[in-house]
């Protein structure tokens, strides 16, 4: 369910009105920006903090585990399990029926959960847009209550993030039809947890050398910098990491391009997910098509390539597909998933001096297509879902070596994709 390009958004006009679509040429790049400015009344509605915070440790060691899936097969939607960090056991609690909730984000106060509705997919009508759904979440009981759904303003939304101030929800739309190319969209969050309609949509254009995967732009993630001043959008189709300045006061538009505008990566590599290191001075990128992890030095909105390491073993000849990337809670290890014929979690140690990575091990996911995974807040467990084989495995993690121990716990669940852990207390 994935396709590809290149883009730059011009700074938003300094206005209190919400304009319609506007096309702005920029060299050979075009950006369409819809609805730049926000009414002050929208901003004033936020009575709670949405920004993700460190998950507190529950007294009994039991977390809520939210699992996003692809529906249409054995899955019905968004699942809630109880996860015991003392034993690694996961017990089903509830399910909220919704279509393809393949990526999730939880509000900072743990009262709301947001999910993409990834569609239409490869076989759907090109004119059909994906969706973003909001749920009220009662963490103590593990129950989700549907609030509302809005259009994602694109096709195949595949990522969600919250702005540092908790006022906006952002999504990456992998593709947009009938105007080819990916986009990212920005949605205001209401005081009751509902998602407002998009106030800003930025379309990318361009492409790369890999036919069938980079024929168009494909925005795959929207990630804020540690200081909260910048947004990076990873474009798998254009082989670019676009950078935008976040100015919620509207003085320079909500999101405007930085002076650098974008960071190039190797042609045909297909950048996918970006995470920042524990010290905020380094960033780590999975490139799906090349199956690599790139290390960048970060400073004030600028990324400088420092290292590229492969995920595959020397001589590997099969299909690859790098996907998720996460750090251990202590920041000492980086983990990345690789799909295709590899189907494994690759483990790197982080050099505290320069952020560089050193391979320390790899672990089979024991299934097909490990797209996403999560490390629990205690650092004791790594939970990975095999989208292609309807299984989830809970691996015990050695916090000193970073390695995953054999004989994980298995949970059967239809097309598991994304995982978020929340303290119910």
UniProtKB/TrEMBL annotation:
<comment type="similarity">
    <text>Belongs to the cycloisomerase 2 family.</text>
</comment>
<dbReference type="GO" id="GO:0006006">
    <property type="term" value="P:glucose metabolic process"/>
</dbReference>
<protein>
    <submittedName>
        <fullName>6-phosphogluconolactonase</fullName>
    </submittedName>
</protein>
<dbReference type="GO" id="GO:0005829">
    <property type="term" value="C:cytosol"/>
</dbReference>
<keyword id="KW-0119">Carbohydrate metabolism</keyword>
<dbReference type="InterPro" id="IPR015943">
    <property type="entry name" value="WD40/YVTN_repeat-like_dom_sf"/>
</dbReference>
<dbReference type="Pfam" id="PF10282">
    <property type="entry name" value="Lactonase"/>
</dbReference>
<dbReference type="InterPro" id="IPR019405">
    <property type="entry name" value="Lactonase_7-beta_prop"/>
</dbReference>
<dbReference type="GO" id="GO:0017057">
    <property type="term" value="F:6-phosphogluconolactonase activity"/>
</dbReference>
<dbReference type="InterPro" id="IPR011048">
    <property type="entry name" value="Haem_d1_sf"/>
</dbReference>
<keyword id="KW-0313">Glucose metabolism</keyword>
<feature type="region of interest" description="Disordered">
    <location>
        <begin position="1"/>
        <end position="23"/>
    </location>
</feature>
<dbReference type="InterPro" id="IPR050282">
    <property type="entry name" value="Cycloisomerase_2"/>
</dbReference>
């Amino acid at each position: 369910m994935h396709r590809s390009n290149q883009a730059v958004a011009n700074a938003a006009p300094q206005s209190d009105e919400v304009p319609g679509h506007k096309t702005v040429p920029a060299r050979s790049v075009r950006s369409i920006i819809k609805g730049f400015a926000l009414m002050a009344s929208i901003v004033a509605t936020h009575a709670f903090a949405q920004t993700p915070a460190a998950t507190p440790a529950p007294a009994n060691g039991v977390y809520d585990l939210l699992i996003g899936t692809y529906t249409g097969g054995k899955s019905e939607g968004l699942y809630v399990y109880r996860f015991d960090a003392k034993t690694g056991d996961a017990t089903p609690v509830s399910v909220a029926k919704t279509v393809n909730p393949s990526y999730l984000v939880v509000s900072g106060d743990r009262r709301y959960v947001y999910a993409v509705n990834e569609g239409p997919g490869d076989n759907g009508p090109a004119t059909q847009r994906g969706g973003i759904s909001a749920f009220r979440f009662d963490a103590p009981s593990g129950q989700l209550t549907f609030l509302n759904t809005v259009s994602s303003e694109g096709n195949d939304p595949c990522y969600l993030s919250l702005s540092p101030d908790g006022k906006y929800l952002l999504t990456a739309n992998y593709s947009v039809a009938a105007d080819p190319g990916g986009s990212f969209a920005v949605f205001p969050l209401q005081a009751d947890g509902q998602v407002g309609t998009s106030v800003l949509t930025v379309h990318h254009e361009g492409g790369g050398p890999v036919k069938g995967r980079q024929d168009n732009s494909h925005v795959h993630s929207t990630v804020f910098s540690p200081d909260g001043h910048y947004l990076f959008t990873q474009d798998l189709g254009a082989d670019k990491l676009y950078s935008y300045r976040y100015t919620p006061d509207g003085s320079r538009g909500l999101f405007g391009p930085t002076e650098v505008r974008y960071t190039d990566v190797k042609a045909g590599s297909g950048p996918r997910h970006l995470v920042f290191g524990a010290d905020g001075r380094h960033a780590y990128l999975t490139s799906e098509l090349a199956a690599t992890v790139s290390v960048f030095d970060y400073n004030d909105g600028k990324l400088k390539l420092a290292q590229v390491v492969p995920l595959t073993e020397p001589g590997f000849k099969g299909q690859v597909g790098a996907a998720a990337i996460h750090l251990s809670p202590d920041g000492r290890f980086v983990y990345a998933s690789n799909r295709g014929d590899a189907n494994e979690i690759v483990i790197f140690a982080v050099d505290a001096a320069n952020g560089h990575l050193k391979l320390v091990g790899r672990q089979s996911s024991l299934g097909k297509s490990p797209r996403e995974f999560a490390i629990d807040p205690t650092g004791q467990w790594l939970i990975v879902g095999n989208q292609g084989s309807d299984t989830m495995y809970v691996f015990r993690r050695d916090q000193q070596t970073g390695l995953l121990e054999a004989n994980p716990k298995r949970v059967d669940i239809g097309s598991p994709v994304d995982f978020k852990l929340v303290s119910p207390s």
